[in-house]
Amino acid sequence: MSKSFERYQKRKLISSYFSVTLSIALVLLLLGVLGLLVLNTKKLADHFKEQVTLSVFFKDTAKQVEIDQLQKRLVMEDFTKNATYVSKEAAAELHSEEIGENFMDFLGYNPLKNSIDLQLKAAFVSPVQIDSIASTLQATDFVEEVSYDRPTIALLTENVQRVGLGILIASAVFTLIAVLLINSSIRLSIYSKRFIIKTMQMVGATKSFIRRPFIWTNIKLGLLGAILALGALYGLLVYLDLNFPDLGLMEDPITMGGLFAGVLVLGVIIAGISTFFATQRFLNLRTDDLYY
Asked: What is the dihedral of CA 122, 127, 132, 138, to 10 degrees?
């Protein structure tokens, strides 16, 4: 009978430790993902901004040497990320592939223009700066038109600012929720041992002596939960880096190392502080209040 009871108690203890570790791991994983978003908000915003393209179309009278010189000049500009020359033949071939038929057979000629597709660096992607660049290019004698989607650029600039602020607010809210969830899990774990705590106190054990093993145990659980969370977070980083290499998430080991260290330290600190206050609460309860 006693062995059966001991096995039951052992299973109950393991189940309690498992639930605490799992809850800590899941919450810290969420915090790690939010931290990843916060640290890479600018990088993500820059990635989308640099997809914006200005198409510089040339007059039919433009000489190839003039186009080449303009392309070389654009490549040297501070605002240029990439400047690619697209001949009207290449543009016609690409357009035919997109629509699924050769439109030149129907028209009898190629109406498209030679052009340069200009991608800007993120710092220069704003309606005012792009308007200025487009005006300068438009003033060139052999340039017929500079085409770009101004409403989309304005919307992108506005939404990037909103998303950045939203991520910061969400991170603060979820951090608070994470602390409360971990604290709640640890309190429930210690609640099941409230009678043991009170018994130790009644036989003369000091509060610090009673608290010490609980704090140490939950710190180890917090550390284990943090390690599990970091393993999942690393797997997520590898997946994103393989599928979205342009984001360069793994190119800054110092930042990623700081994020991982932060998650690890946060898991230990939250577990330790939550355990301290949870045990303190039961230590201060009267014996009659333990039943409620």
From this structure: 100
Confidence band (pLDDT; 50, 70, 90) for 5?
A: very low
Instruction: Tell me which residue has tokens 């223009």.
Output: 113
Paired residues of 53 in beta bridges: 119
- Under a CB-based contact definition with an 8 Å cutoff, are residues 190 and 282 in contact? yes
- CA triple 208-214-216, angle to 5 deg: 95
In angstroms, the CA 91 to CA 94 distance is 5
Return the residue matching tokens 């198409």. Answer: 55
Give the number of C-alpha atoms closer than 13 A to the C-alpha of residue 37, restricted to the C-beta side.
Answer: 18
Q: What is the pTM of this model?
A: 0.61
Q: Domain map of the chain by residue range?
A: 2-47+157-291, 53-148
Q: Is 3.40.50.300 the CATH number for 53-148?
A: no
In sequence order, the β-bridge partners of residue 86 are 115
DSSP 205: -
pLDDT > 90: percent of the chain: 3
